[in-house]
From TrEMBL:
It comes from Pontixanthobacter aestiaquae. GO terms for cellular component: cytosol. The lineage of its organism: Bacteria, Pseudomonadati, Pseudomonadota, Alphaproteobacteria, Sphingomonadales. The record marks 136, 186 as: Important for catalysis. Its cofactor is Mn(2+); Mg(2+). One of its GO terms (biological process) is L-leucine biosynthetic process. This is 3-isopropylmalate dehydrogenase. Belongs to the isocitrate and isopropylmalate dehydrogenases family. LeuB type 1 subfamily. SMART domains: Iso_dh. Pathway: Amino-acid biosynthesis; L-leucine biosynthesis; L-leucine from 3-methyl-2-oxobutanoate: step 3/4. The gene is leuB. Its main location: cytoplasm. The keyword Magnesium applies. Mg(2+) binds at residues 218, 242, 246. NAD(+) binds at residues 281-293.
Amino acid sequence: MKIAVFPGDGIGAEVAREAVRVLEALNLPGLTLVEGDVGAIAYQRHGHPLPAETLDMAKASDAVLFGAVGDPSCDNLERHLRPEQAVLGLRSKLGLFANLRPATVFQGLEDMSGLRPELARTIDMLIVRELNGDVYFGDKGVRETADGEREGWDMMSYSTSEVRRIAHSGFQAARKRGSKLCSVDKANVLETSQLWRDVVVEVAAEYSDVELTHMYVDNAAMQMVKDPSQFDVVLTGNLFGDILSDLASMCVGSIGLLASASLGERQTKFGTFGLYEPIHGSAPDIAGQGLANPMAAILSVAMMLRHSFGMEDQAGRTEAAVAKALADGVRGRDLGGDLSTAAIGDAVLERL
Ligand code: NAD
Ligand code: IPM
Ligand code: MN
């Protein structure tokens, strides 16, 4: 079992360190870890945020554990050299089109939610975000108009095959959970979204056991705060999924708690190849101070064990250790406590 670890920038490296400690503590037979550079650190060392060696390392592995990328010093670089291109490049070059972002309540954390405790207590949803299309990967640029103004554009598009495959991911995930799927779009305004909706309805014919609803994204943001219990699986595009998952994180209590799996079609001898990362970024505002919550990264390891290695037991054991730590009052600054990143890692390890 070969896992490529790409810690990246800022707190990415800090939380990845704790996730690796957990991975090592599980004593998995035949585990090899290799480490590669991504993001601003890779740009500084190799002149590119996603060096060829890093991409090759990912391809030669069974799974990737990713920290986070991004650094304010790179905000004015040409876009293709910016740290964020590392994660976008890995997602697209490895064909990782299905991004699973679970948002579930943890016992004892209801008071840290941005929602009232009685609402926070009901959260159990999975955001299934398309990851290879949308405005993220469309033609883009800045041009001069006839009036001498500058005009920026980013083309939003989805093809039927792109929507179809992520719709299947959404329905299959719903089947394994509460059998409810809410497809989120902006079909009242966007052609891309109308096509999205039409294709989702078509695919739904193969999943008569799953209840399908549709919601406009603006209403979905409002409903998530009003009554999160109505959501089981939320199926949506790249941009809407990005935004709604950060929103969902504060319904749970902290962005330092939400993990993700990015999956495609490639199978290894152990399971589905995937990239696993917390949904948060490099957090330059707290980087280097031991203030980051590593739980999202640790929970990403659990998702890796489940999806890429078929180790449901070890995945459950890891998730239980995090849940127990939270129930016991283990808190970093994001949750109103004062434990450091490493101390939170210790607390999870003790309970593993
Ligand atoms: P961010 O997620 O890095 O931080 C947002 C806020 O949440 C900050 O106040 C931060 O301190 C806090 N936070 C985030 N993770 C935390 C954790 N584990 N524990 C405690 N607090 C945490 O988002 P941002 O500030 O908008 O972006 C910073 C950089 O990260 C940018 O360069 C952005 O492009 C990049 N980014 C990368 C990824 C990724 O690598 N997948 C994801 C999101 C943002
Ligand atoms: C995320 C991040 C990325 C995204 C950025 C860093 C490209 O915000 O993983 O949620 O927008 O997908
Ligand atoms: Mn994001």
